[in-house]
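To: structure desk
From: M.T.
Subject: fold request, one chain
Message: Could you run this one when you get a chance? Sequence is below, nothing fancy, just the single chain.
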Amino acid sequence: MTFVSHKQQPRIAIIGGGPGGLTLALILQRHGIPSIVYEREASDTNRERGGSLDIHEDSGQIALREAGLLDPFLAVARFEGEDFRLLDKSGTLYMDERAEEDEQGSRPEIDRGELCDLLLHALDPGRIRYGCKLTDAAPLTDGRYELRFENGLTDVADLVVGADGAFSRVRPLLTEAKAEYAGISFIELNVENAAAAHPDLAALNARGKLFALSGGQAILAQLNGDGRIKVYLAFKTDRGWLDTCGIPFDRPEEAKRQLLGYFEDWDDSLKNYIRYAGSTVLPRRIYMLPVGLQWPHKPGATLIGDAAHLMSPFAGEGVNLAMLDAAELALAIVEHKDVNLATAAYEAKMFAYSSRSAKESADNLELIFADNAAQKLKELFDHYYEHTASSEDLQTGADML
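Reply: Done. Structure tokens follow.
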């Protein structure tokens, strides 16, 4: 089947059904502008992609307001998720930030799946097509693109928006830049039903995030809304290490036994993050695009989210920037009517704010995996506290993952 543009409205194809792509489609929908989201998975899998997300007042929440979902979001968000604890490998506590019981902070938490459920429930089901993996986007002579999908579907779009993440199929239309290994590898674990099954670990982790840092290694943990603690064992190492380390990721008990060896001299309470983990052991490499990446404006295509400015998770901005991108692009389309004028205006603005976040992320990555990282991170926050007039302007430790 082939779809073509209507004369009255530009045909907008959004590649990728994550938070950024869904937010863009929903804001366009609210302004009466049609779009189609093409998602490669056969059904929504956002619940399986990542854990708890902090949604920032000055970015993600702006997008939710434009999507008409700010109040529903605030009704289910977890403000206690802003808690943050910072330790070193000996268990020495450097920071213990606690959200006030009777105050609503500016960066509450929500699980990724729950956030996407909010977006999907508000989006016309006819605006998203699953099982559509983009294989090719060919420029046409009139500035449009012909899109071809693995399932045989084709489309012709006046504007194709790459919301398809780190290894975007749309990005090569605009730039030769590729995602490069950031020098950090994660191994993801999950401690299920932590409060009931492992109250000692639940008490250590508290209600939000915990970072335990020691020269080139880290245990990064976050309490999710379903009661699990999602754990990332982080290693500063070469790209091939996950392939050569010999850890059998498909045999969880043996994998955990070997992982404990990498944390042999760490405090016993921190090693419980590994001991108590369930049967999911997921290795992953962290990638990033060049800090400050820009491209010359080209008609008919643009990027949002990780497709545009992939960075390490250590600025806590990934989903927030994707949603802010979506809002800025949608509102530019509403304002300018012409999609090419709109994308040019959006890109100029996006390049500026995403470059600042990408630099912060790169700087934080270096700090977190440096020697004496816990002490250095505490000193960084102390410096900000001393020189920032309002605590609302300070990125807390809970926002760094």
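Reply (cont.): The CA atoms of residues 219 and 233 lie 5 Å apart. Let me know if you need anything else for the meeting.
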